[in-house]
Amino acid sequence: MLVTADHAIAFASGLLRQLGASGEDADVVARSLVESDLRGHGSHGIRRLVPYAEQVSDGLVDPAARPAVVPGTPPAAVVVDGRDAFGQLTAGLGVTTLLERVPATAVAVAVLRSCRHVGRLGEFVEALANRGLVGIAFANADPTVAPWGGRDRMLGTNPTAWAVPSGDDTAPLVVDFATSATAEGKLAVARDRGESVPPGLVLDAAGADSTDPADFYAGGALLTFGAHKGYGLSVAFDLVAGLLSRTGSASDPAYDQTFGTVLLALDVGAFVDLGDFRADVEAFRARVHASAPRQATTGGALVPGEPEWKARALALRDGFEIAEATRTALDKLADQLGAPTLDAHHPRSKEHP
Ligand SMILES: NC(=O)c1ccc[n+]([C@@H]2O[C@H](COP(=O)([O-])OP(=O)(O)OC[C@H]3O[C@@H](n4cnc5c(N)ncnc54)[C@H](O)[C@@H]3O)[C@@H](O)[C@H]2O)c1
């Protein structure tokens, strides 16, 4: 099923209001989720409304809560208490506070406490880059990933995101990925579609390599990307973001199941001329695009962030795909909450050029 962005935002916002969010907050969270769908990351798109509703009903997320900046820290050290609000609101407050602080401090760091799932981490570093800052983020998450050489779930998918200002704010450079070999949501999407996954992503409950996404949900674990290197990054993010935010390491039985998140902002203009920096980034982009394709049949090199912008342009034109199982789950939830269901969208064309 193809869905348009406007329709998906209206659907998601209506559902979030029924869950107890204010209209303003519901719109912010809905837009954030739909941006993930538009950029080809359906794992972090509106399908997340199903677990979000469960978290609200379990009392883990407070849909009416508003995050707040904790007073008394030095200006460059921001602490945001998410108060178990939707994580997108907590990360958004982190970004707006960094933008306020960084003109005086040049560099500022926000640590997000009691922060629930923020969705696509890249959204928040991109917001910093669009204001002339380098944005860096990393986070820990609930344990789903085995330590390198082990098979027990001890680490989260622990994503990191980096964004730099470019000369083209419609195509900023954004590096944004999980340190697990795949984001957990992508496994769920593959499982919903009845697809297998490549080797190297999942262990089954006995610690054997598996290509069946269902094995993960039957007590298996995810692997980190890049063998011990991805594992090392995951450990660093778990300890730094987990301990600074007081969430704790995901491996600790006392871990509180929130997403310890760190956002860093560097004011480019405090170090070099921002215009020169943007020009250098564009020169880099041009050199990458000019790189000969590895094989005659491949399309050549892109800079990070570009695949998402290309996907977004197509999805804004044609709509984005929602798996049948996801649509069924979303419509069931909407029915339970008394919100309008997700109707079929009829695109002008299903053919991408
Ligand atoms: N909130 C959370 O707890 C959490 C946890 C894990 C992941 N996530 C989010 O899930 C999303 C997906 O993560 P993922 O690990 O599946 O990402 P991924 O493996 O799809 O990698 C995406 C990154 O790689 C770049 N990229 C992909 N193909 C490229 C190409 N051909 N050339 C150049 N660059 C290319 C993209 O621009 C992007 O920066 C991210 O937005 C991440 O923040 C969130």
Ordered list of secondary-structure elements with their pairings:
Elements (H helix, E strand, L loop, with lengths): L1 E2 L1 H15 L3 H16 L10 H9 L10 E2 L7 E5 L5 H19 L1 E7 L8 H8 L3 E7 L20 E5 L8 E5 L6 H9 L9 E2 L5 E2 L2 H5 L3 E2 L4 H18 L16 E7 L6 H17 L15 H13 L1 E2 L2 H14 L16
Parallel strand pairs: 3-4
Antiparallel strand pairs: 1-12, 2-3, 4-11, 5-6, 5-11, 6-7, 8-9, 8-10
Helix pairs in contact: 1-2, 4-5
Bound molecules: nicotinamide-adenine-dinucleotide.
Can you offer a commentary on this structure?
Strands 2-3-4-11-5-6-7 form a seven-stranded mixed sheet. A three-stranded antiparallel sheet has the order 9-8-10. α4 links the parallel β3 and β4. The longest helix is centred in the first third of the chain and has 19 residues. The C terminus is likely disordered. α1 packs across α2. The protein has 353 residues and is an alpha+beta fold. The chain folds into two domains: 114 residues, Hypothetical Oxidoreductase Yiak, Chain: A, domain 1; 182 residues, Malate/L-lactate/L-sulpholactate dehydrogenase, NADPH binding domain (Ribosomal Protein S8, Chain: A, domain 1, 2-Layer Sandwich), CATH 3.30.1370.60. Nicotinamide-adenine-dinucleotide binds next to β7 and α10.
